[in-house]
Structures are given as structure tokens and as C-alpha cells.
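FORM 7B: Structural annotation worksheet

SECTION A. Query
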Amino acid sequence: MKKASFMAIATAATMMVGTASAATLDDVKAKGFIQCGVTTGLAGFAAPNDKGVWEGFDVDFCRAMSAAIFGDPDKVKYTPTTAKERFTALQSGEIDVLARNTTWTLSRDVNLGFEFVGVNYYDGQGFMVKKSLGVSTAKELDGARVCLQSGTTTELNLADYFAAQGMKFDSVLFDTADEVREAYIKDTCDVYTTDQSGLYAQRSVIADPENHIVLPEVISKEPLGPLVRHGDNAWGDIARWTLNALVIAEELGVTTANAAEMKGSKNPEIQRLMGVSGDLGQQLGLDAAWAYNIVSMVGNYGEIFEKHLGQSTPLKISRGLNQLWSKGGILYAPPAR
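SECTION B. Predicted structure
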């Protein structure tokens, strides 16, 4: 992102922090739905299906919040946003939560006035090229034309990597991921760079995916997660513990299929999560069954990952770092107690 445009967003954000509602849960209940900001369309993460219904990994986070609040996962309306538009949409109150493969950085957290509620996907920036280019490593990309999306962390990462390798490149910028993909297909550039998850998603919708490869290098840390506005801690708590509940449910083996049966479990952790004992729901200002509704209506983290991104999908992404901490990954949630 260019410095001038970054400063403009920061200034606008600072002006709008004071005008944003401090009782988002009340507003959401009054209108009867959550306004969720998503991408303009990224396979596996957020895109309309052939019936025009939004679905995907990030979409299911918003559906989980809806299940927690309304006991219905479909009380959600979706606002497609570009990388440039997403922050203004959240700060202005146009959307209640942003679930749109957004990297958690200090500036976005502090200077822009947002609150990341956790990491729902550990990612890193990579490169995709056509097999016909004859390249097997990013270190062979000296002088390449690189297509990428403006208004992202991708630009700075790209500049840092090429400078560190002593290589040159020409950047070709576009506003949306679809525009980047089309330019790459039409040979406007040699390389497509974004988060690796995005590369796998874009490759899955190219007509000849077998002729494109994602190079092995990962050049950045990209912790992606949902975010809300600063200034409404109660709303942030609901978003944060919705994400945590998805992870904890997988840790405890609670699934869509067995959630009702698990209400009878003798495990105190499961009893608290399912609302059989304790007052977790009350502390969040929600019904005691908030987490039960999430899991029974949407699924746990692992179910959602496999449904939209896993080996049975066109993306075929392995869990990797996004596996539970107890199974070799780094996915971890604080205790629900």
C-alpha cells in the first residue's frame, strides 16, 4: 500500500472511531442480522455458489456468530469488499465484522482502530507461475513481472524479498483478486503473488490448474483473522469466543453429528461448552446454548476446514500449521471456563 493512501485511511479511521456504535450486539439484535464483510469472491473462503448463496471458510465464521447470537446460522448478510474498501467499511459501521483473509499487523490493530479477535488461518505469501516458465524456485524470478493486489501487505513483502535476494522485479497492480488472476492468465505478468491459500484458491478455478505450480518459498508470516472495531469490547468478546469455541469443540471431539449426544458427557469442559453447566453464555450476553448452537449448526474448526479447504475440495490444502497444537500444528484456544 502506498504511504499516502495508508495515511488517508488512518486519518479517516481515527475520525470515525468516535462515531462507531458502542453497542453492536444491541444493533445487530434490533436489525435481526449480522452484516459481514467478505471478499469479492475467493474460492474456498468466501464466494457465492451456483444459487447465489455465499459459502466458504470465512463465511462459516460469520454463520457461527449468527448461530451463537440468534440460534440460527443464516441471520447474516454479506458485503463484498476489495482490499482497499474493507477497512473503511468496518470503521464506518457499514459492516459489523470483517472476515476476509486479512493479515493481523500492528498498524491495523493499533493505528487503524481495529481489534483482531484471533487467527483463523496461519498463512504466508508465496508465488505461482506457469509450468511453461521453467522455474522451480522463487530465486529464479530476477526481472520478472509480478501481478498482485493493491492495498495489501503483499507489496511490502514482495519488495523486501526481492531486495534481500538482490533481484529486480516489475509490479503490476490490480484492485481485486479476480483481476489479478485474469491478468496472470493473459500473460500480463509472469508471476502471481499473494498468500499461499489464495494461490491455491485461484488455481482451483483456472481452466488448466495442472499447468500452474505454487513455488516452495513462503516469504512472510500472514496470520489471517476476523476483526471488529475498537471501542466495543462486548462485541469483540463474542467474535473472539466464537472463534475459540470452534477450536475448543474440535479439541474436545464435539462435532455437528454428536453435539446433542455430547450434552450428556461427564467431561466438565464439554458440559461448560455445551451450556449444561456454568454461565459462559450469560457472561457473553448470550443464551447458554451459544456454543452448542455453533457446533450443531455450523461445525467445529476441523469440520469447517475440511468442508471448504481440505483434501476433498478442489483446493486440497493440508492442515499444516492450522492443525491443532495437540496434533503437531499451532492452533490453540484459551480455556473456556
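SECTION C. Observations
Residues 6 and 323 are 34 Å apart (CA to CA). Residues 1-21 have pLDDT under 50 and may be disordered.

SECTION D. Sign-off
Analyst initials: ____
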